[in-house]
Design goal:
mainly alpha; 3-stranded antiparallel beta sheet
Length: 368
């Protein structure tokens, strides 16, 4: 089954084996085709460069359903990750989603871009990557707005929060300035930040601020008894650009101010602040390993701690370091998490080695 210029076509043809050909009935030169409409089949679809190019207007103009727009992007991401398609082709397709408004589709794109950001954030092209992310999402935030509307659907609040957080991490100056302004007013008692966007505002303020903002967030943390508010703050307290403040946040995670069950999430927030932060977090975990082993051995939080501090490295030297550390410091309850983390490091290294140069060239070619 496939879509041909928006019309469903059901084919009874068979490949007769693992390989074969199926004739697209009624297809004319230049027509676009979407295989596996509505993602009803459990398989990935790899298009040729020419067929992919023809699909770009259909995605941009939303001639395809949300399920199909999601499926194209999911297939391309999975294929690029596995080495069956190029990351440059994936980026080209992602650029066609500038008119997208469906939360599920945008959330998936955002998640995949976050994965790519983890691959690129130690490379010279990372600023260009952030510019691309701004181009995709900034217009959408302008339409969604910062405040709740009577016309909002159940996903609009989720979309608004996601857009603010993503654009804040991507260096959008207007978003950063607005977050700083809202935070200042919030501190002065002039009006509270809406609960649906507060976490994203806090993250943007912390990620683009310094010691002043760090201390202001800690003050808010100490003055509230609401766990929801404390959780918002502790998850972002370590995501800033200053290594000394990140070190303080890691020590804070193990202090008596943070509940034991929340500690891994505070540490995870530090690890997600970039490649330097990942290195610092891993060094901290190794140094404090006996403490973590005593606290969490045998529980799911220990597995989470391992994965959030180890799995996102893009460096085979780190692979060797992680492998060596856990060979000397056994963690039976986390063996599977350790193996998965090592596999993920290897996969990410292969991905970057395979597509790193072509991705850098893609950014240049597209004027970022």
């Amino acid at each position: 089954c496939y879509l041909l210029e928006g019309k469903a076509v059901v084919s009874t043809q068979s490949t007769g084996g693992k390989e074969g050909q199926i004739v697209l009935q009624g297809a004319r030169p230049g027509d676009w085709v979407k295989v596996n409409p509505e993602q009803i089949g459990l398989f990935r679809v790899k298009y040729s460069d020419e067929l992919l190019k023809r699909l770009l207007p259909a995605v941009k103009n939303q001639a395809l359903s949300a399920a199909d727009r999601l499926g194209i992007q999911q297939d391309l991401f999975a294929l690029a990750k596995a080495g069956y398609s190029s990351t440059a082709s994936l980026l080209t397709m992602m650029g066609s989603y500038v008119n997208e408004r469906n939360y599920v589709v945008l959330s998936n794109i955002n998640s995949n871009l976050s994965t790519l950001g983890g691959l690129f954030n130690h490379l010279p092209c990372y600023d260009q990557f952030k510019a691309m992310r701004r181009k995709i999402f900034s217009k959408i935030l302008e339409e969604v707005g910062w405040e709740k509307k009577e016309s909002d659907g159940h996903t609009d609040a989720l979309l608004r929060s996601m857009l603010i957080g993503t654009l804040g991490r991507s260096g959008d100056t207007q978003v950063i300035e607005q977050c700083m302004s809202l935070f200042k007013t919030h501190l002065e008692g002039g009006g509270q930040i809406g609960a649906d966007i507060r976490g994203s505002v806090y993250a943007t303020v912390r990620g683009n601020g310094g010691e002043k903002e760090y201390n202001e967030l800690l003050k808010l943390f100490s003055e509230t008894d609401l766990h929801e508010e404390r959780d918002r703050i502790q998850r972002v307290i370590g995501c800033g650009p200053n290594s000394e403040l990140r070190a303080q946040a890691l020590d804070f995670a193990l202090s008596d101010k943070v509940r034991s069950n929340d500690t891994p999430f505070v540490i995870s927030g530090v690890a997600q602040a970039g490649w330097e932060a990942r290195n610092e977090t891993w060094a901290f975990v190794k140094n404090k390993y006996p403490v973590f082993l005593e606290r969490y051995a045998g529980g799911f939080l220990f597995k989470r701690l391992v994965q959030t501090t180890c799995a996102d490295f893009v460096d085979m030297e780190k692979y060797k370091d992680v492998e060596k550390f856990f060979s000397e410091n056994k963690a039976p309850s986390a063996e599977r998490a350790i193996k998965q983390s090592l596999e993920n490091i290897k996969l990410r290294c292969s991905w970057l080695e395979r597509d790193g140069e072509s991705v850098a060239q893609w950014f240049k070619d597209h004027g970022f």
